[in-house]
Amino acid sequence: MDSKEETKKRQEFERLDQLKQTMRAETEQMVDEEEIRLDSKHRAVDEMFNMLNRSNHNLKELFEGEASDAAEANIDKLKHQHEQMDQLYDALLKSIRVN
């Protein structure tokens, strides 16, 4: 190979490497922004869940008998769904890492 061809190949490699680095930086930024958005949504869900837990005591006092049992069953169902959402959220965060 003559030096002109080697120079062209080296320049092309450098250009492609720079493009790769730029794309990686953009991808990392997009992932970081998405993590921030997801964290915000997760905190909002946690706040609603905490409010639900605080109001659970009030519901037990307001209702009696079957109504109280139904309210408690619904809250238990929501707690279970919240636990599942937490697990999915953790799995989601692990899956969007840039290697």
Can you describe this structure?
With 99 residues, this protein is an all-alpha fold. The protein has one domain. The protein contains 2 helices and no strands. The radius of gyration is 26 Å and the shape is rod-shaped. The model has no long low-confidence stretch (mean pLDDT 87).
Search tags:
92% helix; 99 residues; coiled coil; mainly alpha
The run of helices and strands is HH
As a whole number of angstroms, the C-alpha radius of gyration is 26 Å
Task: Detail the poorly predicted runs.
Answer: none
Beta-strand portion reads under 5%
The best one-word shape is rod-shaped
- Count the domains: 1
State the major sheet.
none
Number of helices: 2
Helix content: over 70%
In short:
The chain has helices spanning about 5-60, 65-95. It is an all-alpha fold and about 100 residues long. The model has no long low-confidence stretch (mean pLDDT about 85).
Give me the secondary-structure topology.
Elements: H1 3-62, H2 65-95
Helix pairs in contact: 1-2
Coiled coil: 9-36, 68-95
Keywords: Coiled coil
